[in-house]
């Protein structure tokens, strides 16, 4: 009995699992984390109306969700100021990024991103046989000019940009993005990941017409709306592109409670405003805690703060390891020189109290280690 | 400004949306359905413990779900009598079928299925450029010998078999499946869709070792467990194959409430037994209702019944259209001669009362039309 016959591309993919969740780390260390501040989840949670909507809908889970997302789609179209023909809704930005790569990247096609930017995008590009070209960050920001120049140089099918960016929390103005768009080569699609846009200053989202064929932008309910576990996101783009997603997407893949909850969350702008204030307070508190340890933080337009540990990547990795061992779940950038930082998500006062107690100890441990 | 550059395969895919949900039909007819009996949903719903578990977890939706599905995985491994290394959990069988096709089918590769079998599988095969070869049903059952012979003839990468089958509700014994497996060509993987297996007589699931490299089998929480809107399913197969899914799956794509609810549902075998009895009663009632109209039904090992409308496909389509117009959501097979039937999902007494009232009228309308 032989097994199935895998294509060369599949055989070439690494069989290691690329992403480790905090639950795996908790099992490894044999204890739950005391503070969950590593995945940029929104610990302040979703609107109580979203929670209630999901609870009310729970007994109806025997029904498939509407594959056209009719009500949520109408609300999102109004929210984004475009027609529903410009929006595709999917099970998180990860899924929509995967669809985008599948729609455009054939084996050998060039794709451009920043070195150290979102690894799940890279995972999809590799998974479909695309060839990744990476440009370095510049002053801890994604380098717009370098991304566009590289895209032209390698004739990229896609160029990925997160704004605000993960893992540093930095951002470009919408005007700068619009200017960069003029440098985008013909036939290259800008994949603009706006997962954190609600946390950013006014003017960070570029004014781009929904029918601009050069850009597809991604928004999510995972961050500001506090629904990472629901898996609801959407992409906005030109009608032709949005139609193409329908050719390949899993039409019935949305969880029914997620669909209902997202609609309720979108309608509760008061809760969103409150969350944004709480996140702002938390970011100031993280900066204060870092400052008390003699460390500086980067300005952030997201719900997390990059703390510069003041030395090299090995030192920051030691700080991170000490925090993890002490029950504080945080993460850090993969690539130098950004890896001099650790990345801490906004938490409640009780979470940040644990950080305030653990960070000096972790620094001392790293210095002595 | 030009748009993005699509590969030839993507350009070749139809831009029509292949699957119409009942909500779309409701909006088209301007009124909700009076009875929802068309999508083989389990109207008796999930275990109350599953509902409660999802409600209790709703406020924690800000957390991503555990990407390893640790607790659910352990419970499923115990349930299936295999190690967790033999199971991959995904967002519905549709998603897992898509992954399976992606793992094995390159453009031009041959895939075999039955003419009129599950269209979503065909959608994925087309979407990855596979070439579908279809064999006809035989006596309203998927034809095991013909499927295996065709697989050998075309050197298929995959052969799809649903047991019990959709849309007819017929089935083969596990022993017959095992015998057919001996005819499976080397290098062909049997995609065994057991979505309805819990409804089937004892012995319908073949005894196949989890590490048999010739087969991957699919199970779901959408049917007997009453959680179609949750999107939780799993595949069981050899360790190498299961590892391969990890190379491409969206690791963080599971809804957190779905994960929690599925675990609770799996643990409530009492509820499952009760649902199976209610479904059995409903199927008998559908047979009685059809009989009162002078129609025969096919024996069914699923939660639906195929009613033979007694004439050709055009006649059955007229009956179906009349039922839809009268507010009864049902569906029917696509392909002759199976399309002499309409397909009715098991419903509660109040749903079937509406069917009992609507079916004679629909038949009269079709006869006069």
Automatic annotation (TrEMBL), chains A, B:
Pathway: Amino-acid biosynthesis; L-histidine biosynthesis; L-histidine from 5-phospho-alpha-D-ribose 1-diphosphate: step 7/9. Its cofactor is pyridoxal 5'-phosphate. This is histidinol-phosphate transaminase. PROSITE patterns: AA_TRANSFER_CLASS_2. GO terms for molecular function: transaminase activity. The keyword Amino-acid biosynthesis applies. InterPro entries: Aminotrans_II_pyridoxalP_BS, Aminotransferase_I/II_large, HistidinolP_aminotransfase, PyrdxlP-dep_Trfase, PyrdxlP-dep_Trfase_major, PyrdxlP-dep_Trfase_small. Residues 37-359 form the Aminotransferase class I/classII large domain. Its EC number is 2.6.1.9. The keyword Transferase applies. It comes from the Bacteria. Coiled coil: none annotated. Keywords: Amino-acid biosynthesis, Aminotransferase, Histidine biosynthesis, Pyridoxal phosphate, Transferase. It catalyses: L-histidinol phosphate + 2-oxoglutarate = 3-(imidazol-4-yl)-2-oxopropyl phosphate + L-glutamate. Belongs to the class-II pyridoxal-phosphate-dependent aminotransferase family. Histidinol-phosphate aminotransferase subfamily.
């Amino acid at each position: 009995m032989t097994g199935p016959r895998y294509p060369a591309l599949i055989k070439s993919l690494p069989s290691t699992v690329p992403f480790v969740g905090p639950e795996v780390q908790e099992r490894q260390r044999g204890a739950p984390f005391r503070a969950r501040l590593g995945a940029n989840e929104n610990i302040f949670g979703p609107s109580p109306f979203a929670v209630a909507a999901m609870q009310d809908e729970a007994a109806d889970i025997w029904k498939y969700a509407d594959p056209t997302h009719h009500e949520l789609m109408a609300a999102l179209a109004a929210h984004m100021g475009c027609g529903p023909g410009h929006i595709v809704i999917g099970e998180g930005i990860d899924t929509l990024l995967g669809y985008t790569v599948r729609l455009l990247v054939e084996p050998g096609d060039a794709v451009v991103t920043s070195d150290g930017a979102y690894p799940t995008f890279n995972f999809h590009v590799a998974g479909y046989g695309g060839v990744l070209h990476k440009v370095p960050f510049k002053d801890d920001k994604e380098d717009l000019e370098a991304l566009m120049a590289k895209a032209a140089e390698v004739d990229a099918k896609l160029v990925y940009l997160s704004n605000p960016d993960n893992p540093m929390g930095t951002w470009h103005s919408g005007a700068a993005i619009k200017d960069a768009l003029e440098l985008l080569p013909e036939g290259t699609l800008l994949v603009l990941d706006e997962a954190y846009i609600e946390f950013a200053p006014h003017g960070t989202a570029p004014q781009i017409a929904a029918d601009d064929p050069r850009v597809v932008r991604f928004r999510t309910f995972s961050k500001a709306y506090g629904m990472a576990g629901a898996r609801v996101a959407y992409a906005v783009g030109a009608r032709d592109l949005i139609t193409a997603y329908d050719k390949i997407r899993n039409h019935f893949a949305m969880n029914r409670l997620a669909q209902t909850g997202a609609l309720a969350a979108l309608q509760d702008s008061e809760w969103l405003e409150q969350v944004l204030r709480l996140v702002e307070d938390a970011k100031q508190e993280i900066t204060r805690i870092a400052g008390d340890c003699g460390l500086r933080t980067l300005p952030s337009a997201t719900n997390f703060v990059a703390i510069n540990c003041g030395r090299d990547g090995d030192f920051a990795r030691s700080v991170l390891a000490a925090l993890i061992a002490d029950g504080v779940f945080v993460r850090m950038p993969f690539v130098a020189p950004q890896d001099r930082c650790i990345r801490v998500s906004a938490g409640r006062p009780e979470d940040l109290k644990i950080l305030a107690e653990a960070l000096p100890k972790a620094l001392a441990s790293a210095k002595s280690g």
